[in-house]
Design brief:
By secondary structure, the protein is an alpha+beta fold. The chain has 5 helices and 6 strands.
Length: 187
């Protein structure tokens, strides 16, 4: 996946991980970042729960949540865009992706971009969800470094143990670093 050649197949596999883990979402995608003529280029491969898919290629907007997440290596979670929208994303989503506005958006960094998930619900992602997403993002790093998708990605699509024990009512603001996939827990 060095040049994003496998992005569509990987994006489908990511959807399988999200579904197996029981993460509720409206749409998800991979924001794959490459250096292009001294400017970072962003290839977005997006999928929705109703089967729609899209691929966009554009310049990476510096200062955007995607750029911040990738450059700083931090999860950027916007839990409720109606309550707090510092990047004016709500207007863009309403204009470009009807029918309903995205309320929650999260970008989780990996070596070559971010894993992005959105929901029509506010505060949609629990700490458990965020840990699962970090797990998937870590697994995305390996194929980026190793070339075409390897067997390790295939193993990442196994069902996530304990998915039924998810805490929807728990506090959703703390971000627990997830390195647990190395301990045998894979999505």
């Amino acid at each position: 996946m060095r040049r994003g050649d496998d992005l569509s197949a990987v994006t489908v596999a990511v959807g399988g991980c999200l579904d197996h883990a029981g993460i509720r979402y409206h749409a998800y995608g991979i924001n794959f970042i490459q250096q292009h003529d001294h400017e970072p280029r962003l290839t977005q491969v997006l999928r929705t729960t109703c089967g729609a898919r899209a691929i966009h290629v554009k310049n990476l907007r510096l200062g955007s949540p995607v750029a911040q997440s990738w450059q700083e290596g931090v999860v950027v979670y916007r839990p409720d865009l109606l309550a707090d929208d510092p990047n004016c994303e709500l207007d863009a989503w309403a204009r470009d992706a009807a029918p309903a506005p995205r309320r929650s958006i999260i970008d989780v960094p990996f070596s070559h971009g971010t894993l992005a998930i959105n929901s029509l619900e506010a505060n949609a992602f629990s700490d458990f969800d965020i840990n699962c997403l970090q797990c998937v993002a870590e697994v995305l790093t390996e194929p980026c470094s190793a070339g075409p998708i390897s067997g390790s990605w295939k193993s990442a699509t196994k069902s996530f143990p304990g998915a039924s024990k998810r805490g929807r009512g728990e506090r959703r603001t703390s971000l627990v670093p997830a390195r647990f996939w190395r301990r045998g827990i894979v999505c």
